[in-house]
Amino acid sequence: MKGVKKQHLPEKQCAVCGRSFSWRKKWEKVWEEVKYCSEKCSRGRKKTAGD
Question: What's the pTM value of the predicted model, to 2 decimals?
């Protein structure tokens, strides 16, 4: 994604809160697997799955 302006980065919807989030450098190799916008949403998923 070198040389791409921020407004042109890919986006996804969070599976828990529905908020949209943009591609980050740390997700470069695993972007297809990223489902949650934050650690909080990732942890929240586990709590709601047990109900």
Answer: 0.69
